[in-house]
Design goal:
heterodimer, A: mainly beta, six-stranded mixed beta sheet, 11 strands, 0% helix, 56% strand, globular, B: mainly beta, seven-stranded mixed beta sheet, 57% strand
């Protein structure tokens, strides 16, 4: 079963912050975050493994709450280049194998 | 440039046609994937190959036939498709498994008439 992302869409002014959530009904081994700009390939952002770690990538960071089976992606001081669709992908544990399951995505638009 | 190249970028075909999508990766990876991306739907895994061997077939209809002749090339052969098969087909590769980051191609936008 696919993870659920929220919100479905968000519009920001440049410099504002945003949080995108990804929730699963299954126990997870890892959560993967990707960003896709219109007409382009999805691009990897980061992977979080079970254990509740937090990672950062410039002004984009993420956390993984193992108890809630939920990951959150934090975008701070947003830039125009952050616009795109953000996808989370999850690997179930145990039994996830090689099957990364993606959510429906969150459309983010950053305006001046 | 992600190191994963897909051709063609756009394809229009009739339901009785036979066509093939091609994917090539220049990253030295051993795992390759086909994903389907439809509007308003999640990225849907179709097939996974590890070291040229198919390790996942996500209940994909037989009108989609993958082929992986070597670790650098992946094909998706299409025949007697349905209009609902119209979508963006993305190829991806990773070092070995889905535990690692995926490198996606830009996709083939397929329209079935």
């Amino acid at each position: 079963q696919q993870p659920v992302q929220s919100p479905q869409a968000v519009i920001l002014r440049e410099g504002e912050d945003a949080v995108i959530n990804c929730s699963s009904s299954k126990a997870l081994y890892s959560v993967h975050w990707y960003r896709q700009k219109h007409g382009e390939a999805p691009v990897f952002l980061m992977i979080l493994l079970k254990g509740g770690e937090q990672k950062g990538h410039e002004k984009i960071s993420a956390s993984f709450n193992e108890k809630k089976q939920q990951s959150s992606l934090y975008l701070t001081a947003s830039q125009l280049s952050y616009s795109g669709t953000y996808f989370c992908g999850t690997l179930a544990w145990p039994g996830g194998g090689n099957k990364l399951t993606f959510g429906t995505g969150t459309q983010l638009k950053v305006e001046l | 440039e992600t190191g994963v190249t897909q051709t063609p970028r756009h394809l229009v075909m009739g339901m009785t046609n036979k066509k093939s999508l091609k994917c090539e990766q220049h990253l030295g990876h051993n795992a390759m994937y086909w994903y389907k991306q439809s509007a308003k739907k999640p990225l849907e895994l179709m097939f996974v190959y590890n070291f040229k061997e198919q390790t996942e077939n996500n209940s994909v209809p037989s009108r989609f036939s993958p082929e992986c002749p070597n670790s650098s090339h992946l094909f998706l052969h299409l025949h007697t498709l349905q209009p609902e098969d119209s979508a963006l087909y993305l190829c991806a590769s990773s070092q070995e498994t889905s535990l690692e980051k995926l490198f996606f191609g830009s996709g083939t936008q397929l329209s079935v008439l």
